[in-house]
Specification:
162 residues, 2 domains, single chain, GMP Synthetase, Chain A, domain 3, 3-stranded mixed beta sheet
Amino acid sequence: MDAEALVRPVIEQAGFEFVELATTREHGRKVLRVVVDRPGGVDLDALSQLSATVSRHLDREGYEDGPYGLEVSSPGIERPLKRPEHFARSVGEQVKVKTTSPMAGSRTHMGTLVSVDEDAIVIATATADGDGGSGDLRVPYADIVSARTVVDWDAELKRSNA
């Protein structure tokens, strides 16, 4: 039974965005991890209510014969970027992108996400020669292995102590 096909409509009907679903085994038990988001973020009360709703739906649909755990969470502050709409929401933010093969001499790229289109993203990165300049790197979605937003923790700590 396709877990994503079961939970996605419930999540979207509740006003959340489905981000991803992963199934793992821990201590001999299946664990279904569902990541959701919505504009303005997700608080613990909302996650708790959504978790109960998803759990009831999975039980009604007979999702799993044996015991399993359900975890519903938000993507967190350093969010994974998986689909074009995730990248579009993160334009202007710092990102870390890993590519399938080297581009501009590296497989790992950090910089500001400048723009996105239907085929690729553009990252403003520091130039490899270290002269302090920058260059724009166009990365097709097909070449992205993983991507996430990156938080400048020093700036965050200074802001919280001010």
